[in-house]
Structure formats: C-alpha cells, structure tokens
Amino acid sequence: MSEPTLLSIQSIRRLSFWSVVLSLPAWLGILVLYVIERLSLAEAAASVLIALILMAALVFTRIADFERIARYAEAALENPTLRQPDASSSETSQRLMSAVSTLQRKWVDERSDSAAQSRARQNILDGLPDALLLLDQQRRVVGANAAAHDFLDREPGTTGTGRELVGRDLAGVIRDPKVLEAVEQALAQNKRTEAQFSVSVPVERIFRALFVPLRLGTRDGTALMLALQEQTERLKMDRMRADFVANASHELRTPLTAILGFVETLRGPARDDTEARDKFLVIMLKQANRMTRLIDDLLSLSRIELREHTRPTDHIDVGAVLRTTAELLDVQARERKSAINITMAPDLPLALGDASELGQVFYNLTSNALKYGGGRGPVELTAQTVETRPPTMPGQGPCLKISVRDYGEGIAPEHLPRLTERFYRVDTARSRELGGTGLGLAIVKHITGRHRGLLLIESEVGKGSTFSVFLPMATSPEVGAKPQGK
Ligand code: ADP
Which residues are CB-contacts of 215 (< 8 A; sequence separation ≥ 6)? Predict the structure, then answer.
C-alpha cells in the first residue's frame, strides 16, 4: 500500500483546524500569563507559536495514522488478501489497525466459506437429473443447474442458450402458455403449481413443470424453484400397458366370437346337418387352440417378466437345446417341405442360462423361420463363439452367438425395430392364419434380456432373415447390468 498523501487541501484544512482547536487551552494559559505580566509580549508570541507547532506535529501524526487506516480498510475491501501496513505512531492507532486487519481476515474466511458452501450447493443441484431453475418475482431466471443448461441448450423446442440463461425471462426460455400461466399463478398466490408441456424436436418428449415457492429472502430475490421432470417414459409405459390390455382382449375376443357364432349355428340352423357340424367343429377346435396358445404365451410372458431381474445361473449345453428344438419342430418342418440343419462350432463352451427358457427362445425363432420362410429353403441353426460382444450387450469379452437363418420372404427395414413389441406383426392376417399370437418375439426378447444377452435381427426382403441370440458363456465374468426389454 502506498504512503497516504496528506497534502491535499482537505487534509491541510483538517490539520490546521485541529492544530488551532487543540492549541486553544495552551494559548489561553499564555494569555493569562501575559495579562498578569509574567510573560513579555515577545515571550508570549513565541510561546503561542511553539504551542501551535507542537500541536500541529501531534495532529499531523494522528491524521496520518487515521488516513492510513482508512485507506487500508478501503483497499482491503477491493483486495481481501492485502497485508496490514507497517506500525502506526500511537498505540490506539496500532490497535485500530490490528482490529481492522482481524476483521478483514474474518471477512475473507467467511467469504471463502460461503463461496465453498454455495459451490457445494451448486454441485448438489448439478448432480440432480432433473432440470432446476430459480426464478425471481418477475419470473426472471436467477439460477440454473447443469441439467437445465443441458436441456435448454439441446432441446430446439426451448430457446435457452447455456450460461446466458441467468437474467432471462422464463417466457423467453420455455414458450408454452400453460407453463407461463402456472408461473403467474405460483407467484400471485404463493403456492405450488404445475403444468405439462412437450417438445417435439428432435423426438417428442413430455415434461412436467413444477413451480415451488421459496421463502429464502436471498439478495438475488429468488422467489420460485422450477423443476422440469421428464414424463415421456412413464406416459409411454402407461400407454403400452393400456394398449396391451386392449390388444390382449381383442386377440381373445376374435376366436371367442367365432366359437360362439358356430355354437349358435349348431344349435339352430345346422342342428341336423352332420357335414356342417363336422366342418364347424374343426374350425372351433382351431379357434380354441388359438386361444390356448395365446393364453400360454401371455402366461409365459408374465412369468418371464416376474423373473426378469434374477439372472439364470445354470450351465447349458446349447447343442443339446438346439437338437431338442429341431426334434420338436421336425413334423412342422416336414409339413412345410423344409429341413432344420444344425452347425455347431467344435468345443463350443457352455452358456450361462436356463435350459427351458432357452428352449423356448430357439423354438419360437425356428418355428417362425419355418412359418415365414420354410417353403423356400432349409432353416439353419448355427452356434459359435465370438470374440467381442455387440456394443449394446452387457459385459465384455467373448460370448456365444446362436443364429437362426431362413431363406424366406424377409422383413422390410421399417418393421425391424418394432418386431419385438407385443402383438406387432408385419402381416396380422397371415400371422393368424399361420397360428401366430404376435407374442413369440416379445418372449424371445424378454428371455435374452433376463440372460443379459441380446437379440439381433438382420433381414433382407426376398432373401431371408437371420435372428441371432448372443448369450454369456458359463465362464464369462459376472455382469450386473440390467436386462434389456420393454
Ligand atoms: P407371430 O406369432 O405373429 O409369429 P412373433 O412375435 O413371433 O409373432 O413375430 C412377429 C412378426 O414378425 C410376425 O408376425 C412376422 O410378421 C414377423 N416375423 C417373425 N419372424 C419372421 C421370419 N423369420 N421371417 C419373416 N417375418 C418374420
């Protein structure tokens, strides 16, 4: 810190004033001595001068000290790490300087404590998955967490531009009338409000905007917290559940209606028609079988879903499972003038799994291959080890790959991502005619998910399809990842 300049007009004025004021008692004494003729005029004048000079010297050192303390305190406000200047001339000034210095140190400590606290709070907020914004009474953004910056930066339906969020009106950040109505209501009535809004680009996402009034009394005037909670997945699941019930009921109702219709006919117009009765009974049996298959598949699916989070631990000989599958489907293969060929890599390691569930996987895939492609060539089952897993399969290292290939009609690319959805069929009428329930691939996907495996579908229209199941080997290191599946 530079030495204070005392020669300012103000300082000189102050110095002169206090020198004169403080000299007054001495001057009064000198006057008395002069009046009673103890001092000559010359002596009195010299004494007055000496008293003034002494007082001026004293006042100068004090003013210099105070000046230094004042400048130090002012500079310390600007620069909290400033060192205390060298000693002052009096003990009082020295104490004052030390007190200012202690205050300054405490202030620096408190300031860094509160900065650390506010950093910690920001870190906590940044760690939350939901986007959070703090708003003032004028609905201006006064704070935001990392998720809010990310979300408002990335979603074209919103207009945030990262760090510039702070200071903006919410109306310029989320342009949805329902959200703005909710914020106005929360501010006016000081109560929690919420609104749902969606952004449609790049994909449709639905959010709940929850406004919570805060009574923090902070200097930035924070009045509300806005939490943006994504609802897309939950709403999708709700919709899927509702669709599933509707689809399952519909699938059961169709054969049931047919059976009831035939029963009515057999009781009425066709009562004595033996030929018609035999024909109708065959159809009724077919419909009843269809209902049985559907109920069996629905039960399998719900059983697998219940066990989906516990991973199977048996050591399975995949070759044996494939041979059993081929035997079970031998008749169906012959009926379709096809054949099931199995090719196994030598010394194939055991898989980690559940024999009956894997049996169901390869039965469904092979049966589909026969149904949708059997007439055009054989169905080939191959099992081998692959060194690296597909990127979306949990865990690392080698795994088993079992493929079911047919040379049938193939599947157009737009259907591939939806094939494993329940009741999704490329051609519903055809699937029904072939005895399909629309649940076979959904079951396959859930079982491979439970095995921490993966189902990969490749297909080319007119050339055929390959459904590959990747499974962890019995010797694979354990993976604790969640299974795939809807
Ligand atoms: P489905 O009981 O109808 O066969 P899946 O879930 O097993 O039900 O299969 C869903 C749909 O996928 C089928 O309806 C069919 O359109 C298509 N699909 C499945 N496997 C094949 C295949 N190997 N070749 C052509 N299409 C197939």
Answer: none
Cis-peptide, bond into residue 202, ω within 30° of zero: yes
Q: What is the pLDDT of residue 354?
A: 96
Ligand 1 pocket test, candidate residues 431, 439, 443, 446, most atoms within 8 A of CB: 431
Q: Is the pLDDT of residue 162 over 70?
A: no
Residue 166 has phi, psi (to 5 degrees) of -65, 130
Token digits of residue 441? 């691939």
Domain(s) of CATH 1.10.287.130: residues in the chain: 237-306
Structure tokens at 36: 């009673």
Which stretches of 9-158 are assigned E, i.e. beta strand?
131-136, 141-144
Using the mean position of ligand 1's atoms as its centre, give its distance from the Cα of residue 355 in Å. 23
Which tens digits make up the pLDDT trace of 344-357? 999 999 999 999 99
CATH 3.30.565.10 spans which residues of the chain?
Answer: 314-471
Q: Measured in Å, how far apart are the chain's first and last C-alpha atoms?
A: 70
Nearest ligand 1 atom, CA 426: 16
**Residue 72 burial (CB < 10 Å; 0-12/13-18/19+)?**
buried
The Cα–Cα gap between 203 and 206 comes to 10
User: How high is the pLDDT of residue 94?
Assistant: 80
Mean pLDDT over 66-76 rounds to 81
Neighbours of 395 (CB within 10 A): 15
Provide the pLDDT for residue 400.
Answer: 97
Identify the residue whose C-alpha is closest to ligand 1 atom 11.
425
How many whole angstroms separate alpha carbon 275 and alpha carbon 151? 69
* 43 HSE (CA, 13 A, CB side): 11
Q: Which fold has domain 237-306?
A: Helix Hairpins (1.10.287)
Q: Give percent of the chain above pLDDT 90.
A: 57
Instruction: Summarize pLDDT for 18-36 with one digit per residue, the tens.
Output: 889 999 999 999 999 999 9
Span 236-282, pLDDT tens digits: 889 888 989 999 999 999 999 999 999 999 999 888 889 989 999 99
Q: Average pLDDT for residues 180-187, to the nearest whole number? A: 94
**CATH number of the domain at 314-471, please?**
3.30.565.10
CA of 332 to the centre of ligand 1 (A): 16
Cβ count near 363 (within 10 Å):
19
User: Phi/psi zone of residue 435: left (φ > 0), alpha (ψ -120 to 50 degrees), beta?
Assistant: left
Mean pLDDT within 153-168: 61
Atom of ligand 1 nearest to the CA of 438: 8
Domain 128-230 grouped into CATH 1.10.10.10: no
